[in-house]
Amino acid sequence: MVLMLQIKAMVLVELEFQVLFSFPQPSFLESPLLVTQNPILAVHNPILAVRNPILAVRNPILAVRNPILAVRTLIHTWFRPLLGHQM
């Protein structure tokens, strides 16, 4: 199961970069607590979940159910600092 999630995460990295640069910055980024306190909202709206890495940190079950969210957290945790971007 872990191997399947890792493979899905690797495949979705390309999709994640497309999502990152294809959509405008929505207003909910200014209110991460609103999304954090409503995990069901993120489950039904994957774009909302992708844009909120705090949600993945506080809701690991949601990250498992939404591999794009898990990839987003991985990018923020490991790759952005390597590229010199601020988190």
Distance between the termini: 29 Å
The whole-angstrom Rg is 12 Å
Please give the largest β-sheet: none
Number of β-strand runs: 0
Number of helices: 7
Return the domain count: 1
Strand content: under 5%
Q: Low-confidence spans: pLDDT under 50, at least 5 residues?
A: 11-31
Decide which structural class fits the backbone: mainly alpha
Shape: globular
Q: Estimate percent helicity.
A: over 70%
How do the SSEs run, as a string of H and E? Answer: HHHHHHH
The mean pLDDT is 53
Name the features.
single chain; 87 residues; mainly alpha; 76% helix; 0% strand
Descriptive notes:
With 87 residues, this protein is an all-alpha fold. It has one domain (2-10, 32-83). Helices cover 76% and strands 0% of the residues. The chain has seven helices and no strands. Helix 1 packs across helix 7. The longest helix has 21 residues, at 2-22. 21% of the residues are buried. Mean pLDDT is 53; it is low at 11-31.
